[in-house]
Design a protein that fits this description.
heterodimer; A: 4-stranded antiparallel beta sheet; 4-stranded antiparallel beta sheet; 11 helices; B: 10 helices
Amino acid sequence: MAASITMHDQKQSQRKVLKKKSVRYFQESSEKEESTSIQKSEEHGEIKKLNQVAEKNAERDDSTDDRRKRSKDPFEGPAKVSPQKMKKYSRGERMGRNLEGRTAQHRFNLKRSEQRYELAAKQAARAELLLPEDAGQVLRIPISNLKQHSFLEVGEGSDTYDVRQSEITESVDIGSAAKRFELTLNQFGPYRMDYTRNGRFLALAGKMGHLTAFDWVSKQLLFEINVMETITDVQWLHVETMMAVAQKKWLYMYDNTGTELHCIKSMSSVLRMSFLPYHFLLAAATNYGALQYLDVSMGKMVSEIKTKQGRLDVMAQNPQNAVIHLGHTDGRVTMWTPNQHEPVVKMMCHKSAVRSVAVDPKGRYMATSGIDRTIKIYDLRTYKPLQSYRVAHGANELRFSQRGLLAGASNNIVEIFKDSCTIAQDKPYMVHRLKNPISDLDFCPYEDVLGIGHSNGYSSLLVPGSGEPNFDALEVNPFMTKKQRKEAEVKSLLEKIQPELITLDPNKIGEVDRVTFQQREEDRRVLFGDLPKQTFKPRFRMKGKSKSGRKENRKQIMFEADKREEAKKSVEVKEDEKRRTVEKEEKDNQETEFVSALDRFKKDKS
Amino acid sequence: MEIRNDLPQFYFVEVFFSCFQSLLLSSNRSACSAINTRLQPRPFCKSEEKRMNIKVKVLSRNPDDYLRETKHDIHRLPRNYDPTLHPFEANREYTRALNATKLDRIFAKPFLGALDGHSDSVQCMSKHPKSLSTLLSGSCDGQVKVWNLATRKCVRTLNAHRGFVRGITVDRNCEYILTVGNDQTIKQWGMEPAASRELEEPVNTIIGKTVFTSIDHHWKDPVYATCGQQVDLWDTSRADPVRSFTWGTDSIQSVKFNPVETNILASCTQDRHIVLYDTREVTPLRKLTLAMRTNTVAWNPMEAFIFTAANEDYQLYTFDMRRLDEAICVHRDHVSAVIDVDYSPTGKEFVTGSFDKSIRIFPTTESRSRYILCGSDEMNIRIWKASASEKLGKLDKREESTVEYSNKLREKFAHHPQVRRIARHRHVPRSIYHETKIIKEQLTSRKRKETNRRKNNKPESIPVVPIKKKAIVVKWNELLTGEMWLLLVLHGIYIQSWEQDRFNKGLLVEVNPEMHTSY
């Protein structure tokens, strides 16, 4: 009996301790240890030790006055922010001791600005708490476990690939269920499609000329026309009042009532388009291997690049640096900016033709699929392969969602992968099979919806966890009014980034340009500096030819000659180096060239 | 039991196929560094026991949370600071900075208005110590006018002097105005205009022996100083000067009280000196000789020891009173003699006027004075904004934050070539443009000559004099001991004979030996 009473007391005291623990966030380590020791000892039934602890606690309760004196504010200081969260918002490492600055004042200023950046990151991380929405998800819970577990606690690791659309629509609210629908348009397919930047409107373009745009949530039709010509691609521009349509011959622009606004004859036989919203550039890849950039704010062709790669029908843009990725039949993926007529990066991605390219919204990973029926993931920071997946028919279309889900369409099946870039997945996140071959697919921004264009129309699927739950209204706003849209348009036009600023590293302009400075210094040194000291001494001549002025003239002439010779030498050295490298390359190529037995029948070139 | 038939059978086929292929390709495998993952065959049929319940959460936003309730509310703008949603941060900031710089130039409309009314050119001006909207000006025909800047109207006209009005000042209690003129008088006028419309008469008139060229009032005490042949210190209640200072013989053209160390007084003389006085001392404090004449000086209202001298050599020199052997800063942009200089109340910048018909503000910092007033020989006074593109009046909170933001961005990208080019660009009159070029040419040629001379002489025979020291010819210090005099004599430094008696009185000389030869 006595033992049971003591047990009871102990439990009470223990509860007190635990209660304290729940109240106090930053507990003293000793107390923490005690509570754990209690739990441990309970398991082993060490009553003696427990008694001691209980006594100790009782003492503590007696001396509450003392404690009150000592007790601190449990939430003292500003709320703590985890460094993990802050990392997301940080703008680079602190320079610390390596801080460079000409004067102490400069160093102080730099230090202070670093502190401000850190504060900004901290504030942003803290503001995460205020985000109103959570991302969508699908969980499978075994029936046997259903009662014990709440929604969030289980489901880790359980497979979701066999969850069907019908099951999802059954278990979500009516409003969300209405987002799963099919449009049967069996006359003019197959269909290409595009969502507006805010995900409110959808444009569908059938290959046989059918063009329509509508608010896909309310199913309110904007217009529906037939352009009486083959349509190869459709692309919304910066707002939902304008879209570009690539037709058989030229590129056309329509407004949201289906009125033809422009016919751009300088862009013909376009196969794929991509719009760079911050630069107001429409990038178009054509049938004859040209990549064209049209400035839609001015209607001016910014750049026309002849890629010399043949038909270009695989295109994607990197949303973080506005670099256009093109896939080619030789298995290469090339990356382009409007400023350079050569690709900024060439990557050999597949051993056969590339069928589709997609870039992760954070701009870190690129997914490619080839005829060799693999999907490969590349790291765009190192340009190295990360993962390689083999899929049934290969993927003819790839898309990343805002939260990094990768959808691949192979013939009539869509497979969606989660975390496919960082972790090797052996199962897809979701699978859906259609009756018709898929021609295009796209995730709807800020919604858990995947739109699929196919030969029999269009289907909209629910993919929980694909869309970004919290939009930034100053960037893109799905609930924008007409007036807000107009204002945002003006603002964004004012802030249009010039096409010259498109580079692989978008933050280059905020950095110190050391390279140019060093190059300039180097050039100057070659031109003016590091010359041999003048050793020429004009000898004495008669008849007034050795007047100081004339002597000086002769000196000057020799000096100039020396300078010229030096410059010439440096140029020669450079050219020599270049020649040597070219020769070496040629030699290497010759060595690797495959020599066939039939080569002897080749006509002699000479 | 449910049979899933929406997944086809080819997965099995695929597995067989890929296994086969993997055998074929196994030799190649090692070449690829990526992790090759083959997707597992997926069961398309599930038994009853394995059947699980699914829980789905899909994004569905309630529009009520995102739309405003009534037309009179402000729009709801949820924010998300995730950097993925805000790409091209640096590029956009740069574009904003560039736009801000361009807008700054576009909206640069500095001219506010002109105060018209004088019938001869304006000779001097004075601010009212307490009322921001009051300005006093004196012209060459002897008239003094009091202006209301808010209404831009002349409030009062005084026919003060015969000939030029040389100086105006207001007593710190704002009870009376003091004017000096070419007619050798100091006149004291009441602050309030006379009730009747009769010709106004001065409250007090002091007739001096010589022409007074300038007047300034003490910042606290009822004391004022005039200058002409000597600097006189007057008590407002007396008709004779309390004290007179002389050092050298030539006439003195300007005198200014220090607003912080109120007993310090600076004057500049026709014979190229700047002389400092203390009103509590009997003799002057220090003297500085520059290469050319200084027209006027202005004290920094925030830093007690700092004053700026407007010089005839097109430049301005900022000095620390305690260290007169070199200037703190030399301001050089004018292409003709600088006539006048005045500090902004913040002490962060000052405005200068010059014979090249330009007004310049040196150096520009963030807090600015509101107006610049300039009198000219065109008989009117013009009012200018200190920052040309600034909006007048009270700013909205939003406007204010926008201005702050764009200023910060301009500061951040100030060194980018495009931004710098646009920010620096000004359309100056042709005469200034050409003159600037000529001066540049002169400077480079002088520099070239100096380097050539240095090249062709013994090393270190021609010392390098920094620009801050170049204009200073002699620095005269107060009260040195006989020992130091001995030192100077030992060093063979020559003192002009007219300074001998001053030396005998106990004042001594520190001479810049290099410049002394030219002196």
